[in-house]
Amino acid sequence: MTPVELSRTVLCAVRRAVDAGELSVAVPARAVVAAPGPGGSGDYATNIALQLARPAGRTPRYVAEVLRERISAAPGVRGVEITGPGFLNISLDSAAPAALVQEIRARGPRYGHSGALAGQVLSVRLPVAYEPRAEVVADALVRIVATQGARVHLQRGADAYDGDHDGDHDHGRDVGSLDLRTLPPAPRDPTPLGPDAARWALLHPAPHDRPRIGAEHLVQRESNPLFRVRYAYARTRALGRNAADLGFTAHAGDLTDAPVPTPLLLALADHPRLLLGAATHRAPDRLARHLVTLADATLAFLPTVLPLGDEKPSAAHRARLALAEAAGTVLAGGLSLLGIDAPEHL
């Protein structure tokens, strides 16, 4: 079960409680689920009971008790505990992480791709003169919106051409436009940074921020987000080579006997939603920041993958390796969409 699916499960529990007369409240449009905070437990937590308590005229504890019973009965949920004033801590069946890993391994770099925006066309206006940031953002948008089945129609002055270079702008529904002529430009030429660091420097900042073009994008240390993303990917590849030397390979199995890294599972499960959001909101920076979050969660998990000392490789090690390789697949796929190389050695 992904965070999006769990959010729907929570909302369904609210709706059924309202229908049964146990709660008198408007069903919210969204239920936030996240990693449990201090004192929490399980795989995910939600504050939906605290959110609904005042409009329902009930205590958060009462609302949490009502929802716990209904959420606990949902398929894929192993149990629900209430902590603090009314936080719901949800544990999922142990098969859920394995299913997520299997899906990523099956889809490879296309994990998160969908037809959600099929047939739609986004018109993007570019400055008449070459401007590095506008050009790089437009190029990334062509790739990102294509993952959701849409196309980009690039326009420069009186000239126009399709992102697919087929000149067929008449086929597809125009869903709006994006004027990159208003994007704050790069303060100076990013070319000396090299193609990868230059693209990251131009794509990572939010659209309203002016990019920083400096040597900080080249340093190989934790302070550099691009380094962390590429290093996390390279480490997942190195783990695969090290595991082969130890005589075992990855298998997307049960992670019950292994620590389940909730932040990593959250980031992987949330990738399709983030990718759709980056396409819908025409925002490559959302994908870049998501890759940093995924990389940090991956780096925190990787020390647990290989056997330690005289420990023999087990099913848990194979399952952890499969999870690490799945993370590497998503990192490499995301970097590719930004037009950035993912080196196996760093």
From TrEMBL:
InterPro entries: Arg-tRNA-ligase (IPR001278), Arg-tRNA-synth_N (IPR005148), Arg-tRNA-synth_N_sf (IPR036695), DALR_anticod-bd (IPR008909), tRNAsynth_Ia_anticodon-bd (IPR009080). SMART domains: Arg_tRNA_synt_N (SM01016), DALR_1 (SM00836). GO terms for molecular function: arginine-tRNA ligase activity; ATP binding. GO terms for cellular component: cytoplasm. Residues 229-346 form the DALR anticodon binding domain. It is an enzyme of class 6 (ligase). Keywords: ATP-binding, Ligase, Nucleotide-binding. Residues 162-176 have a biased composition (Basic and acidic residues). This is arginine--tRNA ligase. It comes from Streptomyces lacrimifluminis. The lineage of its organism: Bacteria, Bacillati, Actinomycetota, Actinomycetes, Kitasatosporales.
